[in-house]
Amino acid sequence: MLKSTRILSCAMILSSLYLISCDEEYDLTKDINTDITIGNQFRIPAGHSDTIYLSRIIDESETLTENNGIYEVTSTGNTNTQIDPLDEVQIHNFTPVLENIHIDLPANATFPEGTRFDAGEVTSIGNYDIYEELPKEVEQLYRADFKNEKINTTLRLSISSTPAGVEAVTLSNLAMTFPDFIRLTNGTNSFHADEVVLNAATPAVQYNVDVELLEIPRSQQDRYIVTESDGRKYLRITDAVEVSATASMTLGGTVQDNAIEVHFEYFMNEETADLNRVAGVFNTSANISSDIAINDIPDFLRSGNTSIEPQEIYLYLDLDNPVNISGDFSLSMESTNATQSGFASVSITAQPATMNNILISNFNASEPGYTTVVEPDLVNLFRFVPDNVRIESDDLSLLSKDNSQMIELGRQYDISADYRAVVPFKFNNINIEYTDSIDELLSDLEDVADKTDRLIVKATGVTNIPTDMVTAVKLYDIYGEELNGIDVNVDKFRFKAAADGQESTNELELELTEKEGSDDLERLEKIVYTVTATSMSNVTLRPKQYLLVKNIFVEIPDGINLSF
Fold it and tell me: What local confidence, expressed as pLDDT, does residue 390 receive?
């Protein structure tokens, strides 16, 4: 195609062609009509591009550092939360009413003094009537301790009078048996007395019975922990307390009555039994929510088209835990540029009254002093680099596995966690976009761009990055406006993956063909190329890896047609 006529200076023609001499006053556009074709190819050095080291692309910062020759993202922070006080609980009717017992006598019979009369087994039973609202946080109640470490209860046995002919009433092997979940200070659920003797001189005897705690088996939760229609849970106890003994009497003389009544009384010294500490499962306000900021990451890693699959992810959680925490921690990512999302859920249990050093990783990593929790789904968080990772607890529970972990009612607990997220730039799968440009083309091409409608930009591409890379191209004028009047062929603008420790040298070729009626080649200032790296093999990004586009020149394959 013959482009529009352009005046060339004598100096340019001389320096370029060495064909003619010129009078500077002679007008080459006047009286001459000659076409001159210069060869069948014409090359012009054009533009420039620097060596693209990752250390140039990636600026180290507090977040992004180099460790043993490998980049890694390291983000640290801390989060604090509180467990709001659980409501205190008072138990009414803790001492059930026991039945009095009647012991039959051989009435109207006469016995020598000191005669022993066996009356057999006697039993007195009383049922609890406890129905108390528990703190709203309670899901299960395994154990409850009483205020001042115990509650004092009293068992009193008495007779109103001693009938004629009866010298004494004796209760041997007296046992007061509580429900299985009640523990006395002796560690059992039973109180024992070898022998109780009631007579005219001692018509009443009483014993201190100290109750230490309630311990409700997991298998009995539904029986004792009742959920009402409003969702609140209640402690319901209707079990029986039983007093049993072997009864005998000492007789002397004529027995006049048919029976003797023994009174059983069981009572507390206080009005209520106050719970002080509890163990169990509680849904509390102690949910953790914190953002792990991922700052200063290079833009090309934040591209919505960049996706990665890290080989290694480490999330260190140093949890200062005054109580026993168990629950699911959800880790989710957020990004302003990315079009994808990531999510992972991690279940952890933290031991009470200690610093818990927990390492959450996508593989069975080992770190001295840390307990590893493996969660393969962590890679979902970093399939692209987020702006931040949010760590949240989902219905964080306070859990006692062995009933020894106690939560004080009415007390606020503070929980704090320091965290550190580390992601080395080592990837199983990678898809990375990087954009750079060849600049200042307008001044290089201004004398020839109007003489042709086809240019080929050639260069040498050198890289030691171990992944194949392909290219997409956009063209711009000096004002930054995109040029759409040029067809671009990028089939030969590709980088082959470098073998480990070696370079890959690639002859690059970019063909630009001006569309019919367009003059965009004359306006071309910048070629912006986006290199996309796609690999299914293991890839590690290192500071000294690079991509270099050099020896850039423009070739006019059909030569230059000059019209005078």
Answer: 65
417 forms beta bridges with: 79, 319
Whether pLDDT at 171 is above 50:
yes
Same-domain status, 137 and 98: yes
Establish if 434 belongs to a structural domain.
no
- Number of residues that make up the chain: 564
Does one domain contain both 274 and 303? Answer: no
- Same domain? For 292 and 353 the reply is yes
- Residue 166 sits in the same domain as residue 144: yes
CB distance 276 to 141 below 8 Å:
no
CA distance 373 to 175: 50
For residues 200-204, give the mean pLDDT: 94
Looking only at the bridges linking them, the beta strands covering 371-374 and 354-361 are: parallel
Residue 342 lies in a domain: yes
Query: Do 267 and 179 reside in the same domain of the chain?
Result: yes
Which residue(s) pair with 526 in the sheet?
Answer: 476
Q: Is the pLDDT of residue 283 over 80?
A: no
Q: pLDDT band at residue 286, thresholds of 50, 70 and 90? A: low
Q: Per-residue pLDDT for 381 more than 80? A: no
Q: Pull the structure tokens for residue 190.
A: 């039973």
CA 137/CA 4 separation, integer angstroms: 85
CB 157 within 8 A of CB 171: yes
- How far is the C-alpha of 31 from the C-alpha of 115, rounded, in Å? 162
CATH number at residue 295: 2.60.120.1260
Spatial CB neighbours of 409, under 8 Å, sequence gap ≥ 6: 85, 86, 87, 88, 89, 135, 275, 276, 277, 278
Q: What is the pLDDT of residues 452-494, one digit of tens each?
A: 888 888 888 888 888 888 888 999 998 999 999 999 999 998 8
**Contact in structure between 328 and 393 (CB atoms under 8 Å):** yes
**Where do the H-state alpha helices sit in 314-453?**
441-445
**Averaged pLDDT, 425-443:** 75
DSSP 543: T
**Of the residues 248, 282, 316, which one is the last residue of a structural domain?**
282
- What range defines the domain where residue 115 resides? 89-282
Q: What is the pLDDT of residue 153?
A: 94
Residue 54 maps to a domain: no
Contact present, 57 and 300 (Cβ < 8 Å): yes
Per-residue pLDDT at 9: 28
Contact 296, 57 (CB under 8 A): no
Pick the more confident residue, 564 or 263.
263
- Of the CA atoms within 13 Å of residue 332, those in its CB half-sphere come to 9
Q: Which tokens is 341 given? A: 């999302």
Residue 329 and residue 383 in one domain: yes
For residues 188 and 98, membership in a common domain is answered with yes
- Tell me, yes or no, whether 135 and 220 share the same domain: yes
Classify burial at 218, counting beta carbons within 10 Å of its beta carbon; exposed 0-12, middle 13-18, buried 19 or more.
exposed
| CB proximity list for 165: less than 8 A, separation 6 or greater | 105, 109, 110, 111, 251, 252, 253, 254, 255, 256
Instruction: Give percent of the chain with pLDDT exceeding 90.
Output: 30
Per the structure, the count of domains in the chain is: 3
Which of 373, 405, 427 represents a domain boundary (last residue)? 427
Residue 1, in any domain of the structure: no
